[in-house]
Protein 1
Amino acid sequence: AQKVTQTQTSISVVEKTTVTMDCVYETRDSSYFLFWYKQTASGEIVFLIRQDSYKKENATVGHYSLNFQKPKSSIGLIITATQIEDSAVYFCAMRGDSNYQLIWGSGTKLIIKP
Amino acid sequence: EAAVTQSPRSKVAVTGGKVTLSCHQTNNHDYMYWYRQDTGHGLRLIHYSYVADSTEKGDIPDGYKASRPSQENFSLILELASLSQTAVYFCASSPDWGSSYEQYFGPGTRLTVL
């Protein structure tokens, strides 16, 4: 069975610092895709960044980057130079070739303090 | 510019009543999805569709029906609403069923069943 686990329920950091959110996944598929989404306080869900399992390079988009550790089935989200508006709930999700469904983690709430 | 819209944004329904949630997308995407989010949890897939006039069951289809009359429109129907169906419902679209394509979400509908 496929599964995505986010063990950090909440993280609080000071503005302008770097934060890392953890995500561990389970799959038997040899090829899969990993996603991070952001849900704002208003409820809006926005796609942030994606990592394809066959790529060795970590994906980077703006001040978001990923720490993909395939042997550990881990895909961490790194946000550098955090801003107040980065405060949100961050979801990790995975899709494997055998299932085609997007499997979601339970989310990590990020609080950015001034 | 919002490419995925939902209506209504909020609804209060009575137990046993019929509820219809509507979703409209202008992304020209073939795939559309209905998710349910319960407080403090991730998203769970209820139904999805990859072509007009056809719908498929997701992980938690019991108590829900779906209708896709056109590429742009996708509805979720609760024939006999129950207290346990109180949740926030999100519609999403994507150009392909999973693959490497991210999903684009609507703003959500908060449903309260009394």
Note: Chain B is about 0% helix and 50% strand.
Protein 2
Amino acid sequence: GESVGLHLPTLSVQEGDNSIINCAYSNSASDYFIWYKQESGKGPQFIIDIRSNMDKRQGQRVTVLLNKTVKHLSLQIAATQPGDSAVYFCAENKGGSYIPTFGRGTSLIVHP
Amino acid sequence: NAGVTQTPKFQVLKTGQSMTLQCAQDMNHEYMSWYRQDPGMGLRLIHYSVGAGITDQGEVPNGYNVSRSTTEDFPLRLLSAAPSQTSVYFCASSYRVWDEQFFGPGTRLTVL
């Protein structure tokens, strides 16, 4: 989830565990959602997206779940690896808008 | 394909100086955008373009100008740098605004 202040929420897991990262989005009219991964010193990298007509979408080792009732998005990473260590953040966009809203992110630390 | 490229990687300016951050993409994407990333905050959209010759303001446009004379290039100009513009700047592109965005590696700007 999100929090105030400069420090990002942190999730620490052991290699091989499953990770779940959460995001509360702000606009009930948003209909397109994306998860990004950002490694230290690099630009954000697309992981997976989902549109509001879906509740779940799966990719390679990742699953995104969308709960429109409570405006909640989650990213599940299966069999987490050290290379998954990064900041993960969600973005939302409302159809017709060219201005997406990005969350502050969650730092995932994977211990070997 | 080089993807999205940005120059310079690092820049230090004095208050009042002007400069241009360069961004180019070779994927023939119509949508290009500039974001700034500040500690503890999500990415914020500065300006965007939906095609050559078309630009518009994002969430935080003040103090910045853009132009889009070609599909490939989308430079960001700081007119008179201020310490509040110290940030990491990312350029991104996508085929459409509601598609996967590809981000550049970023420019870390410090204004003294």
Note: The radius of gyration of chain A is 14 Å.
